[in-house]
Predict the structure.
Amino acid sequence: MPPIIEIDHLSKRYDSGTHALDDVSLTIEPGEILALLGPNGAGKTTLISTICGLVVPTSGTVRVGGHDIRSQWRAARRLIGLVPQEIALEPFEKVADSVRFTRGLYGEGPDEAHLEKLLRSLALWDKRDAKTRELSGGMKRRVLIAKALSHRPKVLFLDEPTAGVDVHLRREMWQVVRDLRAEGVTIILTTHYLEEAEDMADRIGVIDKGRLLLVRPKAELMGEFGRKQLRVELDRPLNGLPPGWDEGGLSLSDDGRVLTYDYDARAERTGIGRLLAELNAGGVGVRDVATRQSSLEQVFMSLLEENA
Ligand SMILES: Nc1ncnc2c1ncn2[C@@H]1O[C@H](COP(=O)(O)OP(=O)(O)OP(=O)(O)O)[C@@H](O)[C@H]1O
Ligand SMILES: [Mg+2]
């Protein structure tokens, strides 16, 4: 299948002079979940807004389902649903009407069965006749999701969809997203909760200062960039670190029974052998060992440091 989104050398300089996107190229396959990560002001919303046709690029092209977003904007736009970062709702409009209205904007006739399914899946059915101004922040965000899905888009953009949504509803929301993916919908999301990206995404892109630093399958990224941690449980407590150890990366738990060693799994010599030999020489037995892959958070932070 051809890519659902093709971004080619995209740049955006706002009138203020801010270079929000700097030569971004990226293709997105149908049915994948791509998480965009990056610090505040990195350019994530600008990228999403440009693909959705809300921001005019300074240079470069974007195709959605093969349609150029500028010359064939109508066809491109039909394929897209957007949940914007900023909540903007008509305060006196009722929830169900608001969703119906958005569907109408896309030129689609009424579909009450779809509306009911949508509102139920987002726990909004009971609120269907409430005015949007009567809703809590998390409910409003879910109304935005319902609106974005009202015309059954092929691509859904979620710009920080879980900001301000409680833990329970966040889980339900992600279930909705997984169900959509199972139906073949492509999902591009941004989040500042890295564990969410770790949990949900097939691929992860990192943006900083308008540049796409990398896009990689999540598993590959975490395996290759990640540092690992070795946890060694000792058969008797130590008073301090092994006296001959001068390589760093080692720490001892308060009770002296667990050594933790951070190491680079890609290094030719990880230092693990030396550590175990050191313990052996000191007559310290090992009860258990475990290694842990570093989290996405560590991967992310080290990437940004490299780009600083
Ligand atoms: N309409 C605008 N006019 C001028 N500058 C803008 C505009 N929108 C965004 N910017 C600037 O472009 C840069 C990228 O902003 P953007 O909103 O894309 O970042 P972001 O990655 O979404 O950040 P956040 O995580 O805070 O949402 C920032 O420096 C921002 O100040
Ligand atoms: Mg943003």
